[in-house]
Amino acid sequence: MANEELIYRITRAIYDRLGSTADESAVELLVTDIYQTVAPALATNGAAANRMSRPGGPADEAGQGSAERLIISVFGMDHPGIVAGVAQILGEAGCSIVDINQTVVQGKFAMVIIANTSGSRLSVTELKERLRSEGEKLGVHIYAQREDLFNAMHRI
Predict the structure, then answer these.
(1) Do residues 86 and 113 touch, judged by C-beta distance below 8 A?
(2) How far apart are alpha carbons 14 and 136 in whole angstroms?
(3) What does the angle CA 154 – CA 88 – CA 57 come to, to the nearest 5 degrees?
(4) Which of 48, 53, 113, 128 is 20 to 30 A away from residue 104, measured at CA?
């Protein structure tokens, strides 16, 4: 079973148990914890060893996504320094920006960044916390999710 399919099944089971009104960030944490628990056993048994996600690898071509990339969404009122603040956090952590798109519509700011975290000096949890904290300082909401989880969870 490919990683995306496993993540999808775990996510589906959690939503089936908790209901569709379950907090998305809580579901993401549960899916991540469960997946990280079972993935080593799958790799040890050889079931997933050849299908592990790699940036630019076959898993990406299949639309699975990578555990080494984050999808970062930023929303709020437009003002100078938002892009710089997010980029500074990523740069200080050793992450690179793979893709970025931003727009301003009637004074409302929206941005999506895909960041490669393979060289990060921070864990994904630490990085997400720094981004959330920076969002508070900047007066915007910043959401970050691993790409493989984002792809699998948005199939539901």
Answers:
(1) yes
(2) 29
(3) 45
(4) 128
What distance in Å separates the CA atoms of residue 82 and residue 139, rounded to the nearest whole number?
9
From CA 135, how far away is CA 113, in angstroms rounded?
Answer: 14
**Stretches in the chain below the pLDDT threshold 50:** 1, 47-62
CB 152 within 8 A of CB 133: no
Sign of the dihedral defined by the CA atoms of residues 18, 124, 96, 2, in that order? negative
Ramachandran category for residue 107: left, alpha or beta (phi over 0 → left; psi -120 to 50 → alpha) = left
What radius of gyration do the chain's Cα atoms show?
A: 16
Distance between CA 105 and CA 120 in Å, rounded? Answer: 32
- Token pair for 131: 């981004």
122 DSSP assignment: S
pTM above 0.85, yes or no: no
CB 70 within 8 A of CB 127: yes
- pLDDT at position 52: 41
The token pair at 21 is 């009104």
Q: Which of 78, 81, 66 is nearest to 107 (CA)?
A: 78
